[in-house]
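Late entry, evening session. Most of the bench is empty. Finally got around to the prediction I had been postponing all week. Sequence below, unchanged from the version circulated by S.P.
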Amino acid sequence: MPKPEFEFTPVDTVPFAPCEPPIDGLSEAILARDEEHGTVTRILKFEPGTDTSPNGALTHDFWEEVFIFEGSFVDQRLGRTFRAGDWATRPPGMEHGPWVSEGGAKMFEVRYQRRED
């Protein structure tokens, strides 16, 4: 089923659930999902003190666009801090993370496949 149609809806009505694979303090609120095409729109939340190092660096087979709208985190691989207002576009196969967030963070994220991928 394609992503459902929604008019403006308060984001706080969407519950957060643990991510897969689970990491203490990391959760997601799925705003829309299209299983057939592998498209997901979500809010990713890092609670204060979240450390994703147990999962190591990530790669995946989809495109990912993210915008940090609250807080910050440190990319352990790059040794850089990213803050609210920063964004990234990651093509399939791009290595990223792991991260540590001392004060917590929230990101808006869209994941999708391109036809030629």
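Two things to note before I forget:
The chain is about 0% helix and 45% strand.
The two ends are 20 Å apart (CA to CA).
Will write this up properly tomorrow.
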